[in-house]
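Journal club prep, notes for RB
We'll compare a predicted complex against what the paper describes. Inputs for the magnesium ion case:
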Amino acid sequence: MITKQKTLVIIKPDGIQKNIIGEIISRIEKKGLKILNMKMMKLSRELAEKLYEEHRNKPFFKSLVNFITYAPIIVIIVEGEDVISIFRSMMGSTDPKNAAPGTIRGDYGTDIERNIIHGSDSIESAKREVDLFFPEEQERVI
Ligand code: IDP
Ligand code: MG
């Protein structure tokens, strides 16, 4: 049986600034993944802190929240078989200098903070993050 998963993808402010929204969406579609919902928004500090709550005690937390809230982001629900790990490989390593060429971060990332893209890292975080940004999705039947 094919089990579909959902993941939450975020094009961070640096991705929008670099004019690669279309490029990223195109990569998602060419991979055969399905876009279920999408919106552009400016993140509040409150929501940013919730998104990154696992990093609350890290030295880079404040800088990360400043970065993700300084300009609009695009939030996308992507669906597909095994989409969580597939999209993590499409993103590449967190630090663009270690990210393989051909990955989104390897091709476009600036540094470990300004690394273009977010993708959920597990089924549990995908659920939590989709609920955070698209509470209305809980009602979805198809
Ligand atoms: P991930 O996005 O690859 O899952 P995480 O370790 O969960 O990486 O970190 C979340 C985000 O925090 C990263 O995508 C990056 O923007 C930022 N970040 C991670 N590590 C550092 C760091 O050492 N300095 C500054 N920013 C960081
Ligand atoms: Mg992470």
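Talking point for the session: Residues 121 surround magnesium ion (ligand 2) (CB under 6 Å).
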